[in-house]
Specification:
mainly alpha, binds zinc ion
Length: 232
């Protein structure tokens, strides 16, 4: 088992971790920088979210405050828009940007944006795949290297990559919608728009980092277990 965890391909896992850590540090520092900038409009993240929902004619989404830092999310199941403490009551341009991004997801849901539908649809399958992938590969290895079983395990892991790839358009589109609305509705000044764009781009890069990290892990699985026929 040590051979599995610490073989030379483990460098791929480390590289993925480093990429994810850099992306995470970047979004945190960018958010902090523009969390220092009060918006000219003086509205809070929650007020901005409500204004955008009203503007889009969405009346069935409830806005609530949740604990944590950058835990903001939109739940399409119970139609709640959760804003973290740092977003809900803050009048910073960063908070308004994050709140508007989450409303972007609510609008995607409301208008039936296809990538979001696909993402929601494949989620249960991806969840099963990510949980069973390693056990299936392990059983395949233990059953005197059953390549069919091992390949099923690798494909189960590949579902995670597919899910993260479908997530990319969903995230980029939510940010694009947010920026458009904030600009057009005059909730941000022309000086504030690039600041929000920086925050949302940094946030989007964390999803790109996740894709790279998962790809490197998948590559490692393929290198270790994909071509087991020539083993002796
Ligand atoms: Zn998002």
């Amino acid at each position: 088992m040590y051979g599995f965890f610490f073989d030379p391909t483990f460098i791929l896992v480390i590289a993925g971790l480093v990429i994810s850590m850099i992306a995470s540090a970047h979004v945190n520092s960018t958010f902090r920088r523009y969390d220092e900038v009060r918006s000219t409009s003086g509205i809070t993240g929650a007020q901005a979210a409500q204004a955008i929902l009203d503007g889009a004619g969405i009346t069935d989404v409830r806005i609530q405050q949740v604990a944590g830092n950058l835990t903001d999310n939109y739940n399409s199941g119970d139609l709640t828009l959760s804003l973290s403490e740092s977003t809900y009551n803050s009048t910073s341009v960063a908070a308004i940007g994050v709140a508007a991004h989450e409303v972007g997801h609510a609008i995607q849901h409301h208008t039936g944006y296809l990538p979001l539908k696909i993402r929601t649809g494949i989620f249960p399958l991806v969840n099963i795949g990510s949980n069973l992938s390693f056990p299936i590969i392990l059983i395949g290895v233990l059953l005197s290297w059953n390549q069919t079983l091992i390949n099923i395990g690798i494909w189960a892991f590949a579902l995670v990559l597919i899910f993260q790839l479908v997530t990319l358009p969903v995230e980029f589109n939510a940010s694009a919608r947010a920026l458009n609305i904030l600009r057009n509705d005059g909730l941000l000044t022309s000086e504030e728009v690039p600041m929000v764009k920086s925050v949302l781009t940094a946030a989007a890069l964390t999803y790109v980092a996740a894709v790279l990290s998962t790809f490197l892990q998948l590559l490692r699985l393929v290198l270790l277990f994909g071509g087991g026929n020539d083993r002796d």
